[in-house]
Amino acid sequence: MPSPPSQKRLMKLRAREIDIQHHSCKSLCIGEIERFAAEADGSQFAVLETGGSALLFEGGQLQIIRDLVAALGSLRDSALAKSKCHQMAPLKRALSYPFFSMLRSFKGFKCSPHLTCGRCPFRGGSSIALASDTLGDLSSLIAAIRPIRVPRGLGYKGTPLYMAGPSAMFAFESADGQLLLPILNYPIAESNASIYNFVKSVRAHENKCLKVPFSLKLSSIIDERSTFAKESGIPPHLVSLAAYASVGLGNAFPLLTDGLITEVFVDGEGSFAYVDHRELGRCNTGVHISKDELSRLINFAKVEVDRCMDYVHPSLRASIKTSDFHVRVSVDAPPLSIEGTAVSVRKFCVHPLTLADLVSNDTLTRDAASYLEGCVKRRRSITIYGESGSGKTTLAVALDLLTPPSWRKISVESDVAENVSQAQFSMHQIRLLASGTTRVEQEKRTSILNSLLHKSPDYVFFGEVLSAEDSAALFQMLASGLRCIHTIHSESAEALLRRLVLQHHIPPESITDLDILVQMRKICEGSHIFRRLTRISEVVKSFRSAAPPSIIDIFRWSDEEERLILSHGSSTTAGMNDCPAAASLDDLV
After folding, report:
1. What are the start-end ranges of the E strands in 165-310?
2. In the predicted model, is pLDDT for residue 58 greater than 60?
3. Structurally, what CATH architecture does the domain formed by 188-348 represent?
4. How far, in Å, CA of 217 to CA of 345, rounded?
5. Are the CB atoms for 163 and 185 separated by under 8 Å?
6. Which 3 state secondary structure label does DSSP give 100?
């Protein structure tokens, strides 16, 4: 069982623990809201459950609601008293609406007073004056009391774990287990009003000043609006949140920027996201992703790859990189996805993990790290294999960062998220983006890989071997003397060699051009997910051309000791796979 986030990452939160009062009502009419606000008087947080929804309000929002209900009382009585005034008809109908819809009706009400109107409180408009009106007009008030939609059955006590930007990440117990909920660590009402007013000012500013050509990429928009937010006097802690809220990604912002979350999943429009957390494992969240917010995220993904999604092409994969996060978005829409649009967001570290970081979080041992560092320094080719999401790319980038600064390195990636720019480390690196999604792109990718022979690299970072064409180009590089580090999907070293020989048609004699084989595994224990290096093998070079190559283990996972141990080339079957430590290719094929 992994421990909660370490104390050194905890910050002083505005509330150490929060107790939540739960209330239920049949509807959100003004009477029910008034009763709810009165019963929750003095509460720091309160949840109102109605129908299929649960709404979380902060104490400051509840106070504003109580003031609004009191202020609306006289206006409601006046509207009912004006039974003969046809202009009051929309307001009288609005009194039966849900509370928030009623407020919007009052906000949009315009009265054309006549001489006979006398002292009608609606003469000149429907202004609602509060005892302490510091949030602006009625529109700002409505934005200020906008609740957080949370799952039903939320626990009564929340414990703060750590800070993620301006939000505190709280852990709650729910009917489905532990739930992660980001709550703004500042007064929510004032923050909501500030963000709402900023969004209005952004729209006015861009309608007046924005000129073509302008970029539709998320990174450019966020940079521009963050600068405008600073100039507009937005509190510094709200600048980034306000910028993302202005493009409709305010709810998802804490999940996208939390460095401990590795992947975000949304199974359909209007559902709650769930995540893979580095220390908490797979857990649900209280972040509700609406259809509009999901659509906006998908639209930014479309802009990045410059193509649309339709009935014929219902899938999309794109990388989005901003100054706050770096993600790869995978989308499956109907008719491919039966239940609705499903989105998976794979997050990459803005600041890559080093080999020391991987040792400290028990991904691999210190001895294995020293061995791999020596392999890199001796320019040995390293093949990292494993299942999807096992940490292959993370390890590959950490090893690539160990190369001497004087080396000339070329990185060939199918996705810009696979490696990181190493200019900040004063390294000589050329990054080539070559996707292989279509046949034309695959031909271009193969041509780029073949052209590396004439560019004199000291080391090559080959993001991921996906196809038989990639394997052919890889072994052509290795046979020509180039050394590289690359990743590939496989369950074991033996399965990897079978795949190369039988599916990708690599001659068995060429397998000896590989040097080091490293296995990564994603281990699931209940809701917790661990990523571990479980095997390091070496391809044995044969001096006889007719002799089949073999592999021998250097390090191997021990089930008894539950750690990676030095294998010494033994042929025991202990470990993650029931296969000998030294296996001949004759046995594999």
Report:
1. 167-174, 177-184, 261-266, 271-277, 281-289
2. yes
3. 2-Layer Sandwich (3.30)
4. 17
5. yes
6. helix
Domain residue ranges of the chain, discontinuous segments joined by +: 7-153, 188-348, 355-588
DSSP code at position 582: S
Those residues with Cβ within 8 angstroms of residue 328's Cβ, 6 or more apart along the chain or in another chain? 317, 318, 319, 320, 345, 346, 348, 415, 417
Question: What is the C-alpha separation between 418 and 416, in angstroms, rounded?
Answer: 6
Q: How many helices (H) and strands (E) does the chain have?
A: 17, 23
Eight-class DSSP state of 512:
G
Residues 38 and 25 sit within 8 Å (Cβ to Cβ) = no
pLDDT band at 10 (very low <50, low <70, confident <90, very high): very low
pLDDT of 108 reads 59
Q: Which amino acid is at 309?
A: M
Q: What is the pTM of this model?
A: 0.77
Which of 45-49, 209-213, 422-426, 568-572 comes out lowest in average pLDDT? 568-572
CB 271 within 8 A of CB 176: no
Q: Is the CATH code 3.40.50.2020 the one for domain 355-588?
A: no
Residues 6+ apart with CB under 8 A from 84: none
Q: Is the pLDDT of residue 2 over 60?
A: no
Is the CB of residue 512 less than 8 Å from the CB of residue 551?
no
> Which residue in this structure is represented by tokens 């080396």?
407
Residues 6+ apart with CB under 8 A from 322: 218, 219, 222, 223
Q: Which residue has the tokens 């659509």?
A: 295
CA distance 558 to 567: 9
Q: What percent of the chain has pLDDT over 90?
A: 31
The 3-class secondary structure across 322-353, one letter per residue, is CCCCEEEEEEECCCCCCCCCEEEEEEECCCCC
DSSP secondary structure letters along 73-97: HHHHHHHHH-TT-GGGHHHHHHTTS
Q: Do domains 188-348 and 355-588 have the same CATH topology?
A: no
Which DSSP string do the residues of 222-259 spell out, in sequence order? HHHHHHHHHHTT--GGGHHHHHHHTTT-TTTHHHHH-T
CA-to-CA distance for 289 and 310, rounded, in angstroms? 22
Is pLDDT of 294 > 90? yes
CA 244, 248, 250, 256 torsion: positive or negative?
Answer: negative
The set of residues, in sequence order, having a beta carbon less than 8 Å from that of 495 and lying 6+ positions away, is none
Helix (H) / strand (E) containing 399: helix 392-400
